[in-house]
Amino acid sequence: MSRILVVADIHGSLNAWLTVRALLNPTDDLAIAGDLFDTRYGNFSNSDFQPGDIRSDLNNFDHSLYYVYGNCDVASYFPGHDTEMMFNAFGKKIGLHHGHRPFPTPDALDIIIQGHTHICHLAQQEGTIYLNPGSIARPRNHIPSYGIIDSKGVSLVELKTGNTLATIPFIPPQSH
Prior knowledge:
Blueprint: E1 3-7, H1 14-23, E2 29-33, H2 51-58, E3 65-68, E4 84-89, E5 92-97, E6 111-113, E7 121-125, E8 128-132, E9 145-150, E10 153-158, E11 164-169
Parallel strand pairs: 1-2, 2-3, 5-6, 6-8
Antiparallel strand pairs: 1-9, 4-5, 7-8, 9-10, 10-11
């Protein structure tokens, strides 16, 4: 893996999903902080709402996938996942959840990823990095965005321009 592309709140939008696919490099992993399908409230009369196409594409997905359900996802539609998960990448312990309910934060997490608000945010507090990638499909701040985690740090990127909105670099451990 060269990096992790981080998204949330796709809400069944096929155009947004195809954008995510286009952003993925061959060696990237993908983390989705919920509301990928939105089969709970989705608008089936909207021609862009195609959760079935997204699910079919994921059945042949060539990237490592870290995915949690959001409040608009129905677990039975894409079984085998949960509302929260933890994984390791780049020597960091990462927690992933949607953000619609409290996340039991273990003290040892380096990065916490959540979605739900549709507003991108990147901050560090007491040594933990908090990332909300915003939404490519329905940004509430009118800035379609996504996150990137790589060996150097965590960044937020504006979709339309490709400009980095914010970055928090990883600080190498101090040797004594």
